[in-house]
């Protein structure tokens, strides 16, 4: 709609382009514009000043608020309230990926988590129209089982996670992809120890059904810390080794990750960044110490990192690899694979690389 100029526009508060439309409408309009300018410009100046001051105050107060209320940080780290894709129907995974069924598992009293089970691509034809019982029995078909532990934000229906199901499903793995407590259609609230409980409950459930098939923990991003927490707990508390751990785009521990991710850049020079923000992670019970965990593990450990990862820099993945390698007795059990920048895989898209299954199978000595 063409603007008329004049006072009514002033009322609308849309003063940004009034100069142009004023010129097009002759003197009367211009005179009204002048009046408008005289009264608006000082106001605008004050408004901008107030805004800038407000932003500065927020910038300065956030680190102190975090120190005072460290649990605020859990919101930023877990991002489970960003439940994208927002209209996913978890009960109908077949809309996004074939040979997949949705199930729910109670991991502790009062906490039920949502899971998708994708069966190996070679069983796709058989899988059509099958019920939950068939899927459970399929777990014992000798194909390895991946327990997939996604990163923060979003749900198991996010595009790159669905791609993981497609890529590794087509390569004849079973995949159990869960939404931790507080994510997706799962109940409960996110906590680091709660995630471990969820993963171990799923491990037990799968182990009870998978016969002699191997079970892998595969973590991506935040999920890498969850994978090593779970593998370590399994080993230390029950003397059980998971068959392998794969860490995609990992960090060393959450403190070091937070010091390097882009979002904290604006605070790195802030006096007391370590004390106010980084130390608050531990005060909010967030550790995710993969670097400590891998020193304890003895299972095969594969670390994957893209050189163009813009979220968790690849040097953290390398550092984790070096920590593991120096701690492992059998050095052949630890491997680090980087993906060159030109592939453009970044932080989230390693599962889009068609080479991935072959690399993983080669590491696991499978054909
Ligand atoms: C499932 O498989 C069918 C037949 O191969 C294919 O046409 C369809 O696109 C697949 N669905 C999804 C969601 O990938
Ligand atoms: C598991 O392996 C053992 C020993 O190799 C074998 O006796 C048993 O039949 C296998 N079980 C299944 C379910 O394949």
Element order, helices and strands? HHHHEEHHEHEHEHEHHHEHEH
In the CATH scheme, what's the topology name of the largest domain? Rossmann fold
Distance between the termini: 66 Å
What small molecules accompany the polymer chains?
A: 2-acetamido-2-deoxy-beta-D-glucopyranose
Count of separate DSSP helical elements: 14
CATH architecture tag of the largest domain: 3-Layer(aba) Sandwich
Give Rg in angstroms: 26 Å
| CATH superfamily placement of the largest domain | Alpha/Beta hydrolase fold, catalytic domain
Domains counted in the coordinates: how many? 2
Mean pLDDT equals 89
Give the helix proportion (percent range). 40-55%
Structure classification: alpha/beta
Shape annotation = globular
Question: Strand percentage, roughly?
Answer: 5-15%
The tally of strands reads 8
- CATH C-level of the largest domain: Alpha Beta
Largest pleated sheet: 8 strands, mixed
Give the arrangement of secondary structure elements.
Layout: H1 7-12, H2 18-23, H3 26-68, H4 71-78, E1 100-108, E2 111-118, H5 124-127, H6 132-138, E3 145-149, H7 159-170, E4 174-178, H8 192-207, E5 215-220, H9 222-238, E6 244-248, H10 254-260, H11 273-283, H12 290-296, E7 301-306, H13 314-327, E8 334-339, H14 356-363
Parallel strand pairs: 3-4, 3-5, 5-6, 6-7, 7-8
Antiparallel strand pairs: 1-2, 2-4
Helix pairs in contact: 3-11, 8-9, 9-12, 10-11, 12-13
């Amino acid at each position: 709609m063409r603007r008329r100029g004049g006072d009514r526009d002033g009322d609308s508060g849309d003063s940004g382009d009034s100069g142009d439309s004023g010129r097009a409408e002759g003197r009367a309009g211009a005179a009204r514009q002048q009046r408008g300018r005289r009264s608006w410009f000082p106001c605008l100046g004050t408004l901008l000043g107030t805004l800038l001051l407000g932003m500065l105050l927020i910038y300065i107060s956030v680190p102190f608020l975090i120190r005072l209320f460290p649990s605020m940080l859990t919101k930023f780290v877990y991002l489970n309230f960003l439940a994208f894709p927002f209209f996913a129907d978890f009960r109908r995974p077949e809309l996004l990926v074939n040979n997949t069924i949705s199930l729910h598992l109670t991991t502790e009293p009062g906490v039920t988590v949502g899971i998708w089970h994708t069966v190996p691509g070679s069983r796709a034809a058989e899988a059509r129209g099958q019920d939950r019982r068939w899927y459970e029995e399929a777990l014992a078909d000798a194909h390895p089982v991946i327990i997939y532990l996604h990163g923060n934000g979003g749900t198991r229906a996010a595009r790159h996670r669905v791609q993981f199901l497609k890529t590794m499903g087509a390569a004849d793995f079973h995949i159990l992809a869960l939404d931790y407590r507080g994510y997706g259609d799962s109940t409960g609230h996110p906590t680091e120890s709660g995630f471990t409980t969820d993963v171990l409950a799923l491990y037990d459930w799968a182990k009870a059904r998978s016969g002699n098939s191997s079970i892998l923990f595969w973590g991506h991003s935040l999920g890498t810390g969850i994978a090593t927490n779970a593998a370590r707990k399994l080993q230390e508390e029950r003397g059980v080794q998971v068959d392998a751990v794969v860490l995609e785009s990992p960090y060393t521990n959450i403190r070091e990750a937070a010091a390097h991710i882009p979002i904290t850049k604006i605070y790195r020079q802030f006096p007391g960044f370590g004390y106010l923000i980084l130390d608050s992670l531990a005060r909010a019970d967030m550790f995710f110490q993969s670097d400590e965990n891998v020193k304890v593990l003895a299972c095969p450990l594969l670390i994957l990192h893209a050189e163009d990862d813009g979220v968790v820099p690849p040097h953290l993945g390398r550092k984790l690899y070096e920590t593991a390698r120096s701690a492992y007795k059998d050095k052949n059990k630890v491997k680090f694979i980087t993906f060159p920048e030109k592939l453009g895989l970044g932080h989230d898209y390693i599962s889009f690389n068609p080479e991935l299954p072959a690399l993983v199978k080669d590491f696991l000595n499978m054909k």
